[in-house]
Automatic annotation (TrEMBL):
Source organism, top-level taxon: Bacteria
PANTHER family xref list: PROTEIN RSEC (PTHR35867)
TM region positions: 74-96, 102-121
Organism the protein comes from: Buttiauxella warmboldiae
Protein name (record): SoxR-reducing system protein RseC
Gene giving rise to this polypeptide: rseC
Amino acid sequence: MIKEWATVVSWQSGEALLSCDVKASCSSCASRAGCGSRILNKLGPQTTHTLSVACDTPLVAGQKVELGLAEGSLIGSALLVYISPLAGLFLVSALFQALFGTNLAAICGAVLGGVGGFLIARACSLKLSRRESWQPVILSIALPPHAFRVETITSAEGQ
């Protein structure tokens, strides 16, 4: 189970709207200075992801919850997103090369296959996203922001 903390934006009738911060995968790597991924992450927009998760427990805005996502769903969606366009690119490019025998046809086939693979991945992801096993679940709920209070008591001995 992959775990991540999220912040509650709102809760209404058993449905929690959660906000997750985008984190760079290489923020604590030893080779930060020469990492191309780190530079690309700095260039991109620093956004948050908003998602809706079923939750029977009433939640308040600002409350933290721990989300869990099954590894199988993450691996399956990554394979779908990366392999479908790549397979379409190679297969249609090879088909066009065999049919027409020119490099221009192979390039056109590669573009068509890549776009077609992307569209297939998009259609499949919509169907797969409805599976119960692919949905994030709330594993634990932290205290509401107003429930934790710190009081400082000053000592009267010095007066």
